[in-house]
Design goal:
The protein is an alpha+beta fold. The chain has a four-stranded antiparallel β-sheet with strand order 2-3-1-4. The chain is elongated, with a radius of gyration of 27 Å. The relative contact order is 0.11. The protein contains five helices and four strands; from the N terminus they run αβαββαβαα. Keywords: Membrane, Transmembrane, Transmembrane helix. The chain crosses the membrane at residues 6-26.
C-alpha cells in the first residue's frame, strides 16, 4: 500500500512538471518586451509570460487566440533567427492559423526593395556589358 501511494505521488509530481496546458509563445529570457509586444500587436491581452523550458513562455489556452497568434506570426522571423515563436511551430509557418476566422491579420511586411534600374542593361550598366563582351571574345578566342 505504501509503495502504491509513493509511486502515485511521484507520478503526480513528475506529470505536473511535464504537462503544459495550451500552446506557448516562447522567447529568450531577454525578450520579455518582444513577447509582450507580439501579444499586444496580435490583439491578445491578459496573458502573462513566465520562466519556462527555453526561456520565457506565455501559455495560451484559448484555441481562437492560438489561431489568431499563429496567423499574426506566420512568415515572421522565427526561432532560427533569434525571434519569438510558438513552441510547437518554431519556424512561424502558421501551423495553427485558421485564415477563415482571421483573414485580416496582416502578413509580415517585407523590407522595401530598390526599384529596378530604368531602361535596359546596356543603358544602365554599360561597363558590365563591355566586360561581358570582352569575356565572350576571350572565350571564343580560346576555343579557336
Amino acid at each position: 500500500m505504501k509503495t502504491t501511494l509513493l509511486t502515485s505521488g511521484i507520478a503526480v509530481i513528475i506529470s505536473s512538471f511535464i504537462t503544459v496546458n495550451g500552446i506557448a509563445l516562447s522567447g529568450k529570457p531577454n525578450q520579455r518586451s518582444e513577447l509582450m509586444d507580439t501579444l499586444k500587436n496580435a490583439g491578445l491581452t491578459g496573458i502573462t509570460c513566465n520562466p519556462g523550458y527555453i526561456g520565457l513562455d506565455c501559455v495560451i489556452n484559448d484555441p481562437a487566440s492560438i489561431s489568431k497568434l499563429s496567423c499574426y506570426l506566420k512568415g515572421k522571423p522565427s526561432k532560427s533567427q533569434g525571434a519569438v515563436f510558438i513552441y510547437e511551430d518554431n519556424q512561424n509557418t502558421g501551423k495553427f492559423c485558421n485564415e477563415k476566422l482571421y483573414p485580416n491579420v496582416l502578413p509580415y511586411p517585407q523590407p522595401p526593395y530598390p526599384a529596378p534600374a530604368p531602361g535596359n542593361l546596356r543603358e544602365s550598366c554599360p561597363l558590365i556589358v563591355d566586360i561581358q563582351k570582352c569575356m565572350n571574345k576571350c572565350v571564343d578566342d580560346a576555343l579557336k
